[in-house]
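Hello again, I could really use a second opinion on something today. For a while now I've been wondering how a particular protein folds. Please have a think about how the structure follows from the sequence. Here's the protein in full, and shout if anything looks odd to you:

***
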Amino acid sequence: MTTEIDRKEKLAIELGQQLTRRGMMLATAESCTGGQASGLVTSVAGSSGWFDRGFVTYSNAAKQDLLGVQAATLDTYGAVSEETAVEMARGAVGNSLANVALSITGIAGPDGGTDDKPVGTVCFGWFIDGTSASATRHFPGDRTRIREQSTDYALRGLLERLND
């Protein structure tokens, strides 16, 4: 029987294999997940061959200082937006040795949600070889579950884009 841990590790291993085959390095830019994506990929032996670094940019100031997210983007769209997620992913590549990045920014709860962006709203960005993509999802559950689903979705999204 496959456990949740086995499934997550298998995803990270598959991602590492795809990046290695392509000679690519990954950087992550995380907010609401607090480094979970980085933790998962670095749990794989040999990940230093395809993972460069992770940025945990929980505050808006950190998003600006470490990733170059524009104040105008944050003011206009908010920290939880696809526009911010894309800038986070671009900034992760621009401030690392990586050429591939994923980003996660959202509201894990239990507080902080609004009518427009309820708890469970999470935005994602991916940046691969100069091309960006983004998505927004609404995940159910408590803080832990929202963060887990977000990490899984970000890694799966990157793997799908690498396989396209």
Observations:
- Strands lie at 26-30, 51-56, 100-106, 121-128, 131-138.
- The chain has one domain: 4-163.
- The chain has a mean pLDDT of 96.
- The chain has six helices and five strands.
